[in-house]
Amino acid sequence: MANPIPTEPAPRLTLWADTAADLMTPNPISIREDATVREAIALLTDRGFSAAPVIDEAGRPVGVLSQSDILVHDRERSLTAVPEYYDRSELSRGMEGLAQGPGAGDIDVTRVRDIMTPVVFSVPPERPAAKVVEEMLALKVHRLFVVDRDGVLIGVISAHDILRRLRV
Q1: CA 24 – CA 34 distance, rounded (Å)
Q2: 3-state secondary structure (DSSP) of residue 77
Q3: What's the alpha-carbon Rg for the chain, to the nearest Å?
């Protein structure tokens, strides 16, 4: 039987933050609830974000729009498209004055509020950092919003923000 080689214990990681305010990214980029899905896609892709908070006119978070929400929306739109087995010439009768051709009339005017996830998990800026981590784990979410006393969005805490604050 081989003798185990004694090893040094791995160093412990410590979260170097006291409160949610210490963890958050302030002034997050957000999407208005009345923005079109097309505008939201442009924002997310231009910024390289996988999701963004959705806010109302007062700046309060009302939901989250993620790439998954957009994919589900696109899938549902494609499922409601006219199947190819219908004769297109019969479908276009009575539509002589309308635009014809690929993509004609296919402008998506859906609003972000119609496809977002309408759940907002938020914390106040003074919430202890350890509690923030516990809440994210318990809720199984990738981000929490930080809101002021009036419920206005002032920051976001992502899993990446927490990892950045870990030190040996």
Answers
A1: 26
A2: helix
A3: 23
